[in-house]
Amino acid sequence: xxxxxxxxxxxxxxxxxxGLVEAxxxxxxxxxxLIASENYVxxxxxxATGSVLTNKYSEGYSGRRYxxxxxxxxxxxxxxxxxxxxxxxxxxxxVQPYSGSxxxxxxxxxxxxxxxxxxxxxxxxxxxxxxxxxxxATGKWFDPVRYGVRKETGRIDLDEVRDLAxxxxxxxxxxxxxxxxxxxxxxxxxxxxxxxxxxxxxDIAHIAGLVAGGAHPSPVGHAQVITTTTHKTLRGxxxxxxxxxxxxxKAIDKAVFPGLQGGPHNHTTAAIAVALGEAAAPGxxxxxxxxxxxxxxxxxxxxxxxxxxxxxGTDNHLLLVDLTNKQVGGKPAAQALDRAGIELNYNTVPFDxxxxxxxxxxxxxxxxxxxxxxxxxxxxxxxxxxERTVTAAAREDxxxxxxxxxxxxxxxxxxxxxxxxx
Length: 422
Ligand SMILES: *Cc1c(COP(=O)(O)O)cnc(C)c1O
Prior knowledge:
This protein is an alpha/beta fold. The chain has helices at about 10-15, 15-30, 45-50, 75-90, 100-110, 135-140, 160-170, 185-195, 210, 250-260, 265-280, 285-305, 330-340, 365-370, 380-395, 400-410; strands at about 1-5, 30-35, 60, 65, 90-95, 115-120, 145, 170-175, 200-205, 225-230, 240-245, 310, 320, 340-345, 345, 360-365, 420. It is built from 16 helices and 17 strands.
């Protein structure tokens, strides 16, 4: 087995770590990876991430640094910023946030003070921790108000968003989340934010690649601030960006540095630039639409097998399945699926009667398998494996899981990944 790019020096100098890296490459090759926030980055992104740029300190912004020797880092960050602006059509981009959570913190630091009211989607309904959930600093240091989804439709309740906004007058409103299978109505959120004079933050971490590829409506022109990770559907390195209109640019830049961070991770910045170059290239539009086509096909195949999908289906890369009618919890199902070669995560479903650590649902996403080249015609097979696994899990039939894992490996043998040569 061989990780790509190859790691001969690491293998010689630290075989313990190298062995685990090799094993992880093989694991990523041998499994159907359906974790909705994950992907396979290109070898070019892997190479940029593993470069000497990790050696350099660059506190500040291009042309305004606190350390010398920025002859190469400045143009790299300039390229990343220019590509982000071009791909998304934004006035301004900051590519320095270390990850999605600190990117959201920057929005708080820029536009709210401790104790201010913020409005976000409740975590169990599909929001993110950093949208004011209680265990997060954002829920402890600010005064969070939360919206959810309608019980009958599983979709965001915009009437509730409007009512809460009018009643509580939040400083920030977050639109976006981690388990939303349907299109987010950014113009409707913008209208509500405008009415109560709140800053609308569109957190497009999950759907950034779909937005870049024209497979989900863009928040640009509706949200003053757009935060995103770069490693989910956008298929870049682990990192984040914040895009803003011209008016909110300065406050966001000051919040990221010096407000929250020191030196940017230049190897990540370079890899973000590379990923954005890929997102601007021909082919990415069809990649984004293929992700959605695969998710729709998987949804259809699961519905045919009697699975209960939150909201009844999907508009994007993500499916949320309520397993209550299958007589198995989300956690044992996810664990059995992992043993059967299908990797995903257990997840709460809206109005979940079970505990967050042992919830009723599983979450699936199609970004990684689409990168691999799986097509809608493969989705009925995946749905069949999921059903067989869930049945086997309910019966504690370990042998059935091994059979499925072998079938999965056989299918995947025809679909190489960028980070591994079998
Ligand atoms: C993934 C995600 C984040 C956080 O990103 P990290 O890089 O894990 O910190 C923030 N918001 C949303 C909506 C996400 O899906």
